[in-house]
Specification:
- This protein starts with 8 loop residues before the first strand and ends in a 6-residue tail after the last strand.
- The chain has helices at about 25-35, 60-65, 70-75, 85-95; strands at about 10, 15-20, 35-40, 55, 100, 105-110, 115, 125.
- Helices cover about 25% and strands about 15% of the residues.
- The longest helix has 11 residues, at about 85-95.
Length: about 130
């Protein structure tokens, strides 16, 4: 926030893959016209049709998204199940954000390799295809 507003802000998991080509210029035009809208994947949705793989929005919408954690207890006390996509989607909806089906699909990368048949605390278990954690 100290550097001002950005055309777009994106929050993504480091292990995600987006299958569509994104036209960020066109996306910036749409999202700046609709400042309460977020772009999220259309697949793997839970809660109020929310997927937490990535989110793209205006600076103001992403600030609401980034601060959603501050309302988790309040929403939980209203009876919303403490499930990641469920609680986030309820907070964002209560704060006036929207998301629609933009046809963008994403997933967690699965092209890594298992190094041992089972997980143990002392042996490296899995290595992702995009480098080491």
């Amino acid at each position: 926030k100290q550097y001002g507003e950005y055309d777009l802000m994106m929050r993504t998991r480091g292990d995600s893959v987006i299958y569509n080509q994104l036209d960020l210029g066109q996306m910036a035009t749409i999202l700046n016209r609709e400042p309460t809208r977020l772009v999220i994947p259309s697949n793997n949705r839970q809660g109020l049709s929310w997927c937490d793989t990535f989110a793209i929005g205006s600076s103001k919408a992403m600030e609401v998204y980034a601060n959603a954690v501050d309302s988790f207890n309040d929403v939980y006390n209203q009876g919303v199940t403490m499930h990641p996509e469920n609680i986030v989607s309820h907070v964002l909806k209560q704060r006036g954000l929207i998301w629609i089906d933009d046809g963008i699909t994403a997933d967690l990368r699965k092209s890594g390799k298992y190094l041992t048949p089972t997980f143990t605390g002392t042996t490296k278990y899995y290595e992702p295809d995009f480098g080491r954690w």
